[in-house]
Records
---
Amino acid sequence: MDETPPSPLPFPTSLCHRCAAPPKYVRTKTSTFILCPLLPQKYAPQPVLQCPLFRPRSPEPEAK
Ligand code: SF4
């Protein structure tokens, strides 16, 4: 489990990748799951396109 985004990124459109939560990436042999430290159920249905707990990560890596 770690916070480094895997490649290829699972659910590239997910908000979680840009969230300051920060999400953890849980890898198995066949897939990667996104574990949210803020949600009680831990695994949000992916891709997360809207989330009440979302906070943009700062600094934004893409914001150049
Ligand atoms: S707070 Fe929402 S957007 Fe952020 S990692 Fe958790 S589920 Fe994803």
Note: Residues 15-16, 19, 21, 23, 36, 38-39, 44, 48, 51, 53-54 surround iron/sulfur cluster (CB under 6 Å).
---
Amino acid sequence: MNFEDLKKFFFRKPKNALEGSEDAAPADKPAKEAAIPEKLVEKCEKCGQIILSDELRDNFGICPKCGHYKKIDARARIALCAEQFAELFSEVEGGNPLDFPGYDEKLAALREKTGEKDGVVCGTAVIGGVRCALFSMDYRFQMGSMGHAVGEKIAQTFEYAAANRLPVVGFILSGGARMQEGIISLMQMAKTSAAVAKHSEAGLLYIAVLTDPTTGGVSASFAFEADIIIAEQGALVGFAGPRVIEQTIRQKLPAGFQRAEFLQQKGFVDRIVGRREMPALLASLLQLHSNAGEGEAETFAPASASSAPAAAQTAAPAAKDAPSAAPASENAPAAQTGAASENGGKEVTA
Ligand SMILES: [Zn+2]
């Protein structure tokens, strides 16, 4: 056992499920980790077997031995489900509004490690030939917790979608509100909810995909405000953690409490779906609703356009209807995300 292992052994604190068992506590880890070449093999968190990283990536992060779902990052999730993606609002960046000690350093380390400014990636996408707005939360960024930047980007995505009459697909993963931003993070619940409501009042479709975990202030706001709520199988979905609830009500909770399947039985979730089946389900739901609507949801043949024209299409309405989407930055992020989507699968092993 080397020194690092010993340190981990003696100084570990008990973790709950939301903190994650993988690289979810990057503040304690040196930022230089990002420079270490990709791992060739990794150990399944559930069955403990050694799997080739390539094999795991090609399998959408699903363990080939036991079927366990490893968390996948925001862009890998987009690459899995969308035929095209053009990023929006990539310029939005959070700060340290309360001067929380150590938070600036933590943000800087996470930005360097993940290459993302904060815990959500937003944009327009084409899924099953239907154009939509999309947001995807990233577990690597403080378990997708919602601070100002995350709330702002998600609210802007809904506003953009309402202005351009697009459905919204949200890949949700969050440990809840970001404690380092205190009341500011809690205000994001109201802000995102208001944006969802405006989008809904415009008669537009919102599909939420709850992934493991969806909890706290996110589950208490936009995660459960969707028209259609899909959950990835086995996902932990709830508000407070099971341990906190047990301590508060002094009762043992039933088996499987807060798992997606339990929530479906209780009517909170419309459909449980496996990761492989997710793209086809989203495609069929979007197609169904685009045909049933007023015909304003545009459909594109998936093969007909590269990501560049898609960016041009999104840039024009952005400049007209949503001044917040800085038009000058439209093309650059699109080019970036084209590359990032191709690399998206790789990040599964990060
Ligand atoms: Zn496994």
Note: Residues 44, 46-47, 49, 63, 65-66, 68 surround zinc ion (CB under 6 Å).
